[in-house]
Amino acid sequence: MEWFVLLLACLVAVDAAEPSRQPNIVLMLADDLGWRDVPWHESKVMAPTLLDLANSGVILERHYVQPICTPTRGAIMTGKYAARLGLQHAVIGPDTPYGLPTNETTMAQVMGKLGYSTHGVGKWHLGHCSWDHTPVKRGFDTFYGFFNGALDYYTKMLPSEARGARTARRADKDTGFDFRYNTLNSDGTVNDDVLRSENTTYSTYLFTEQAQKIIKQHDQSKPLFLYLPFQNPHFPQEVPQEYYDMYEGIEEDKKRRTVLGMVTALDDAVKSIITALKTSDMWENTVFVFMADNGGNPKDGQSNYPLRGTKASNWEGGIRSAAFVNSPLLKGGVKNNELMHVTDWLPTFTHLGACGTSHPSTCLSPDLGDIDGVNQWSAIDGSGESNRTGFLVNLDQITKASAVRQGQWKLIQGNPGPDSWVPPPNMTLPDHLAKIQQRGNRFLFPPKKLQLYDVVSDPYEQNEVSKDNPEVVKQLQEALTAYTAKAIYPGNKPKDPNADPKYFDGVWTPWLKTC
Predict the structure, then answer these.
(1) Mean per-residue pLDDT for 251-275?
(2) Nearest C-alpha neighbor of 107 from the set 318, 302, 288, 347
(3) 235 closest CA partner among 147, 178, 301, 294
(4) Are the C-beta atoms of 92 and 70 separated by less than 8 Å?
(5) Where are the alpha helices (DSSP H) in 301-437?
(6) Exposure of 441 in the CB half-sphere (CA atoms within 13 A)
(7) Closest by Cα among 14, 7, 31, 66 to 318
(8) DSSP state, 172?
(9) CA-CA distance, 459 to 10, in Å (whole number)?
(10) What rounded mean pLDDT belongs to the chain?
(11) Residue 476 binned pLDDT confidence (cut-offs 50, 70, 90)
C-alpha cells in the first residue's frame, strides 16, 4: 500500500511539473555484440542508423553488464546483481528446472504499475520450467519470441550446440521448436500460440514486424514500455545473403563477415522501429536505449578488441557493453564516461515513469526495495554525475571466481574466464600484448590468483599492479566480502529429461507446475 501511495504522489507531481509526462521507453538488447562490432568503435561496420542514433544521442562508454546472457537479463529485470538471484553461474539450459526466482519483482511489473503497456519481443532466457517463470506471468502484457538461449534464425529450432559442447552446425540434430506468441487469459493462465508456420523467415524480420505492429496498435492514452532483446549477432551465425554480400571486398573472413552482416540487419531493424515510432507520433516522447548484453565471442566472429577477454569472462571484453541512449528529450552529441551498470536501468526507468524526464524536487521515485541499481537519469541527461562508484562484476561460488570494481580499480580473484586480446581477422596482435599472452596458460589461472588493474588509466588490462597497491587490494577484498554476505548460491539444477520436446509435440514448453 505504501508503494501505491508514494506512486500516487509522484504522478500528481508529474502533472504539476511540466514537461514531465511519462515517456515511452524502448529497451533494445543486442545478443553477444562485441565492443568492436558497432560503428562508433569500428568503421567497417555498416550500421548508419545505429551510428546516427549514437552520435546524436548519449554514448555510454563505461556501461557494464554481466559476463553472459542469463545473468544480464536477470539484472535488467530486477535491478539486482546476478549473484543475489542465483543466476551468476553459466546460463539456464533448455531442460534445467530453474529460472529467475518468481518472488522477484520484474521491470515489466514495475512499469505496469506505473501505467505502462508492457511488451516483450525476442529472447527471454530467464527460465521456462513452469509457466510462472515466463514473460506474461512476469508482468508483460504480450510476449513474442522464444524462451531459450539460442535459436536457428530460420527454422526456429533450438541448435544442438545449445544443449552441450559446441560442434559444427548440424541442422539435422537441432532439437525442439521454440517460437510463440503469449498473452494472459482472464483466468490467469497463459495463452501459448506456438507459431509453427514461422519456420522459414529470418527471425530479425519477424521481431521487427511485431515491434512495428505493437507501436502502430498502441493506445497512446498510456505510455509504452517495449523490451526488444533481439537475437543478432548470437550464434548460430546466420544472415540473409544480401547482408553478407555487402561486405564483399571489406571483410574476407567468413565468420567475421557474417557477424558484420548480422549487425547491419539489426541496424535495418532499428531503422524500421524508429520510423514506426515517428509515423505514430510517438518518437518525440520516447527514450530509446540500446546495449549489448555481454561481450562478443571471437570464436563466433565477434570482436571486443582492444579490450581484453571475451564473453563469459570477468575481463573488460566480457562485461563492458557497447551502449547508447537517444531521445528528443535529451541533449545529444555526447560521449558519456560516467560509470553505469546494467542494474541501473530499473531505477532509472522507474524515475522516468514516475517523474518524467525533468527533475521536479516534489517528485520521488517509488521505493524499489533492496536493489543494487541506482537512478542514473541525471548522469545521462548531463545535469549531474553518476550515482555509482563501483559494482560487483560477478561472484561465482561454484568456480570460486569473483571480481569487483571500485572507483578506478578492479580486483579479480580466481579464474577470470576466457582471456586474451583477440584482434579481428585483418589485424595482428602487437608484440607487447603477444608477450603478455605467452606467460603461462592464459585460460587457466591458478584458483587463488589475485589480480588488480587500474581500468581507467589501463582500460585494456595490460598492467597487473596488486603488489604495488596492497591497501587497495584490502579495500576491494572487503567490498567483495560485503557483496558475498548478500549473495546466494547458484540456483543451477541438473537437466530434467521430462523437459524433452518429444513429450510436447516437438516444442520446448514449460513442463512443471512449480520449479
Answers:
(1) 97
(2) 347
(3) 301
(4) yes
(5) 316-319, 345-355, 377-381, 431-437
(6) 9
(7) 66
(8) G
(9) 40
(10) 92
(11) very high
pLDDT of residue 375: 96
Q: What is the mean pLDDT of residues 491-499?
A: 97
C-alpha cell at 327: 531521445
Q: Which of 41, 63, 125, 351 is catalytic?
A: 125
Dist. CA 195–CA 507, nearest whole Å: 10
Average pLDDT estimate for 93-119 = 98
Map grid coordinates 571471437 to a residue: 298
Q: Report the alpha-carbon angle 120-183-136, nearest 5.
A: 55
Three-state DSSP at 82 gives helix
Q: Is there a contact between 30 and 250 (Cβ–Cβ < 8 Å)?
A: no
Active site residue 69: yes
Spatial CB neighbours of 206, under 8 Å, sequence gap ≥ 6: 144, 198
Q: Residue type at 514? A: T
What percent of the chain is helix, strand and coil (3-state, nearest 5)?
30, 15, 50
Instruction: Judge whether 125 counts as a catalytic residue.
Output: yes
Cis peptide before 229 (omega within 30 of 0): no
C-alpha cell at 381: 541527461
Say if residues 223 and 115 touch (Cβ distance below 8 Å): yes
- Residue 15: pLDDT above 60? no
- How far apart are alpha carbons 101 and 99 in whole angstroms? 6
Strands 409-413 and 450-454: antiparallel
Residues 368, 350: Cα–Cα separation, whole Å: 9
Q: Is the pLDDT of residue 14 over 50?
A: no
Chain CA centroid to CA 25, Å: 15
Q: What is the Cα 314 distance to its own chain's centre?
A: 16
Of the residues 41, 63, 69, 363, only one is catalytic, namely 69
What are the residue ranges of helices labelled H in 185-239? 203-217
pLDDT, tens digit (0-9, with 9 covering 90-100), for 129-184: 999 999 999 999 999 999 999 999 999 999 875 444 333 344 445 589 999 999 99
* Cβ–Cβ < 8 Å for 497, 97: no
Residues in the chain: 515
Cell of 123: 529472447
| CA atoms of 267 and 47, how far apart (whole Å) | 5
Secondary structure E strands in 293-385? 323-326, 334-336, 340-341
67-86 pLDDT, tens digit each: 999 999 999 999 999 999 99
First to last CA, the chain: 29
pLDDT tens-place string over residues 346-380: 999 999 999 998 776 678 888 999 999 999 999 99
Rounded CA-CA distance 89/376 in Å is: 27
Lowest mean pLDDT among 62-71, 153-162, 410-419, 497-506: 153-162
